[in-house]
Amino acid sequence: MKETVERTRKIAAEVIALKGATIFAPAHGITRMIESVVKDKKMVLCMTVRLNGEYGVKDVYVDVPAVLGARGVERVIELKLNDEEKAAFEKSVEVLRTHIGHLKSVKVN
């Protein structure tokens, strides 16, 4: 699993470097989201949603698989994570919470 994750990270960076940009992937993702909402397709998509107890997390927006339909996010799909995956997920959530805390303390003129 570790090798797969590391290889995926490296390949993604290589593809971005070779293309010089990542303009197509975001456009494709947005298109799929719009289609799922407009046509009420209830697609399972990886997107940023507010967790309300899923994965043991509350009140943080995190990228997770979820069902998207005409009424918005209809449900979050909780994947079964092993201990290592769960620890990595929880570490990511804490990093987000830390950065959100820093942003809240910044004064904007």
Descriptive labels:
globular; 51% helix; alpha+beta; L-2-Hydroxyisocaproate Dehydrogenase, Chain A, domain 2; single chain; 109 residues; three-stranded antiparallel beta sheet
Would you spell out the secondary-structure blueprint of this structure?
Layout (H helix, E strand, L loop, with lengths): L1 H18 L4 H15 L4 E10 L5 E12 L2 E5 L6 H23 L4
Antiparallel strand pairs: 1-2, 2-3
Structural class: alpha+beta
Secondary structure tally: strands:
3
Q: Count structural domains.
A: 1
Uncertain stretches of 5 or more adjacent residues: none
Mean of pLDDT: 89
CATH architecture annotation:
Alpha-Beta Complex
Radius of gyration: 17 Å
Task: Examine the coordinates and then state which fold CATH places here, giving the name of the CATH topology.
Answer: L-2-Hydroxyisocaproate Dehydrogenase, Chain A, domain 2
Element pattern in H and E: HHEEEH
| Basic shape | globular
CATH superfamily: Lactate dehydrogenase/glycoside hydrolase, family 4, C-terminal
- Which strand-content bin applies to the residues? 15-25%
Distance between the termini: 46 Å
CATH class: Alpha Beta
Largest sheet: 3 strands, antiparallel
Number of helices: 3
What strand line-up does the widest sheet have? 1-2-3
Residue share in helix:
40-55%
